[in-house]
Amino acid sequence: MSENVRGNLSPRQAKAVGFLLAGCSIIETAGKCGVNEKTVRRWLNSPDFASQLKTGKRQVLERVEMRLVGLAEKAVGVLAELLDSPAEPGAGVRRLAAVNLLELTQAWREMGDFEERLQALEQAVLHDKK
User: Domain span at residue 58?
Assistant: First the structure.
């Protein structure tokens, strides 16, 4: 569960945010929190709950991004190592994993760049309307 989930939420709502962030479905979350599925769906429409869930998602994605950055360095190291010993057992699998990780990291970075540009455009449009 996220560290900063509580906010204005009840203990059950805070637990629900944690379960949703951990990948549980709405039905699973409801069962684990001891509430009806409709209750969780209603919570999802609550501004406080939605805000906490959004904050939690952002925190999870930031941790994933940092992990990708660290693994990208490791992937480059694997590729560099394979340049000197391409015939070692398992080299193909290691190479594929490294390349896939670097491609994922690149796609993630491009998504982040796109999001930043979109936010800048939105701000510019909002500023022009004033």
Answer: 11-129
